[in-house]
Amino acid sequence: MSEPVVVVGAGPAGLMLACELAMRDVPAVLVDPHPAQRLEAPAMAINAGTLELLDQRGLADGLREGTVTFPEVRFADLPLAFDKVPGPREATHMVLQSRLEKTLIDRALELGVDLRWGTRLTGFEQAPDGSRVTAVLVSDSGEERLTCRYLVGCDGRDSLVREGAGIDYVGDDWVIVRGIVGDVAIDRADVAPEQYGLSYTPNGDQFLGAPLNPGTMRVFSAEFTTRPPEFEDGPATLEQLGAVVRRLTGTELKATEAHWLRHYSIITRNAERYREGRVFLAGDAAHVHYPYNGQGIGTAVGDAVNLGWKIAAEVHGWAPEGLLDTYHEERHAAGRMACMNIQAQLALLYPRALARYMREMLAEFLTFDDVNVFLAELVTNLGPAVPMRYEGFPEPPERDRLLGRRLPRARVKTASGEVAVAETLHGGRGVLLDLSGHTGGPDVDGWTDRVDVVRAQPVADWPATLLLRPDGCVAWHDGAGWGEDVLRAALTTWFGAATG
């Protein structure tokens, strides 16, 4: 095997990145210190943006099956009019993190990822000439020094990769959330009405009870404090959970057994940079925040899909200069927006009674469609848009709703039949989507080894031709007043020089 990319941490970011690399014939070694997949994963929602990314790789259909959808999108518990977001778009689905991870594990193994459970990264060093990284891996088989092209830390908020790269984890602790999360055995008839769904106390503290099956309920509490939490050693207990539920709902929790429970506390951090030479950060290693609106998994999967095709372009030798630098530029901004909007939501929730005037004012702002749409896209990982600017050419109109975003869910009619736009991205390549009705629109001569051409019938309100990056972002379209000269600039910017 040629020098692989080593990915540390088999959570959503690490698993998705390993799949993104392997589907492009880049050898990937994924290491995780746990002996097998952890089923004690707290996240339980996948929002619209995450589902769209998974749909682009053919991974969403199985996750949708048998799930409950959340009809509302909220900002600090204030309802947003999600139907005003240009669409159609996905609803948020209740999908346990463990189920998503199992889907990604199966896909990674199918693609040939070298997945090594029970393997810990203990250190690494970059070659003085910047040509490679040597990772030190320890397992029951002993110590191994593995030379790799790139090292990616997806190893969580206490990331050894981030620490070893000397990257600061910047943030503040002015609001700390602490709570208990886990699964308990309880007869559905014994669940009090106050313990179903998401509820808030006047002080903004939260409790969530979600049935997973007739005899099991996922529980999640969140209490706000200005002091660091002081938990007892060891795992959370059923007695501790019972006290929390009484405090937050006023009713007794009649659970008979805890399948698993965990204390947690949340800080807000965004790494100073997401790249140091050949070392990258993704997921919680890059940014950590309260897991509101499904944004935790959304930002993690977004990191992986953004980084995967760019590393593959470097490995296969066609990446234009500076392509890998755009990972930090684009995803650091996304991480910052996630941290910022969630901190703002926490400020509006804690203490909720004292924030009532801010909440009333925001409710007034939400009557303006632009404000409503901006926040709805932000909290569902549909926005903000990735800037698309090309040197020497005028910028597109400020209110362009397509550039830098993924297209809404739609099906297009090709000569061989109807196909979903997301399906055109299953191969992980760029796509020139020609919707001129087979009239012979622009081509991608010189880029056909990196970009597919899909010709289809026109779609109402869409431009005649669009260029999609491998992550689904619209990089160019002719409805922005840009001609084929800008198309060639976009192709060169994202896919390198033309060949032939």
From TrEMBL:
GO terms for molecular function: monooxygenase activity. InterPro entries: FAD-bd, FAD/NAD-bd_sf, RIFMO-like. Residues 4-338 form the FAD-binding domain. The keyword Endoplasmic reticulum does not apply. Keywords: FAD, Flavoprotein, Monooxygenase, Oxidoreductase. It comes from the Bacteria. Its cofactor is FAD. This is FAD-dependent monooxygenase. The lineage of its organism: Bacteria, Bacillati, Actinomycetota, Actinomycetes, Kitasatosporales.
